[in-house]
Amino acid sequence: MKLDKKKAIVEELHEKFSKSKIVILTDYKGLDVAAVSELRKKLNEVNVEFKVVKNTLLVRASEDTEVALIKDDFKGPSAVAMSYDDPVAPAKVMTEFAGGNDKFEIKIGVMNGKRIDVKAIKALSSLPSREVLLAQVLSAMNGVPTAFVRVLNAVPQKLLYALQAIKEQKEAA
């Protein structure tokens, strides 16, 4: 590969590393082309970019980015998955894929300037999607005013029941 092409790859990766919310480093050694294509297809469906790049280029591209935290892990055949909006989506897809393929290994990741290990990535994959979490928050926010209105409504209602009981008691007497 020519030097100009390598520089272009490093610049492109550096820009992508700077923009990404999560970067997950994987080892794909032993996977055939069909399996890697299947993984790429699943990742593309959730707007995640998957790149197979030489480790030396990964190290250079990670300089001055959060991804530099894991540059020591760029060993062996490496591929990176980068998500620019939803950090849960790549974790879900890759964890599911790793469960079905013994040769695919999730090494480590970086999210919000912190290293995340395989255990944390698997925990992240068990979270519901962003849309589901937003729906749950809205549901909780909607439930509080509704319950408050019910409580406020119950006070005059109980007063009316008490007055009705007093009226019936006086009429009976």
TrEMBL record:
* Name of the gene this protein is made from: rplJ
Q: Name one GO molecular function term.
A: large ribosomal subunit rRNA binding
Q: Describe the protein's quaternary organization and the partners it interacts with.
A: Part of the ribosomal stalk of the 50S ribosomal subunit. The N-terminus interacts with L11 and the large rRNA to form the base of the stalk. The C-terminus forms an elongated spine to which L12 dimers bind in a sequential fashion forming a multimeric L10(L12)X complex.
Q: What name appears for this protein in its UniProt entry?
A: Large ribosomal subunit protein uL10
A GO BP term, please? translation
Q: Which InterPro entries match?
A: Ribosomal_uL10 (IPR001790), Ribosomal_uL10-like_sf (IPR043141), Ribosomal_uL10_bac (IPR022973), Ribosomal_uL10_bac_type (IPR047865), Ribosomal_uL10_CS_bac (IPR002363)
Asked whether the keyword Ribonucleoprotein is assigned, the reply is yes
Q: Which UniProt keywords apply?
A: Ribonucleoprotein, Ribosomal protein, RNA-binding, rRNA-binding
Q: List, alphabetically, the Pfam families matched.
A: Ribosomal_L10 (PF00466)
Please tell me one Gene Ontology term that the record gives under cellular component: large ribosomal subunit
**What's the stated role of this polypeptide?**
Forms part of the ribosomal stalk, playing a central role in the interaction of the ribosome with GTP-bound translation factors.
Q: Does the keyword NAD apply?
A: no
What is stated as this protein's family in its record?
Belongs to the universal ribosomal protein uL10 family.
